Amino acid sequence: MHNLLKGKRGIISGALDSNSIAWKVAQRCRQEGASIVLTNAPIAMRMGEIKKLAEETNAEIIPADATSVEDLTNLFTKSTEILNGKIDFVLHSIGMSPNVRKNVPYTDLNYDFFTKTLDVSALSFHKMLQVAMKLDAMNEWGSALALSYIAAQRCYPFYSDMAEAKATLESIARSFGYHYGKKRKVRVNTISQSPTKTTAGSGIKGFETFFNFAESISPLGNAPADDCANYCVMMFSDLTRMVTMQNLYHDGGYATTGVSMEAMEKFSS
Ligand SMILES: NC(=O)c1ccc[n+]([C@@H]2O[C@H](COP(=O)([O-])OP(=O)(O)OC[C@H]3O[C@@H](n4cnc5c(N)ncnc54)[C@H](O)[C@@H]3O)[C@@H](O)[C@H]2O)c1
Question: What is the pTM of this model?
Answer without folding.
Answer: 0.98
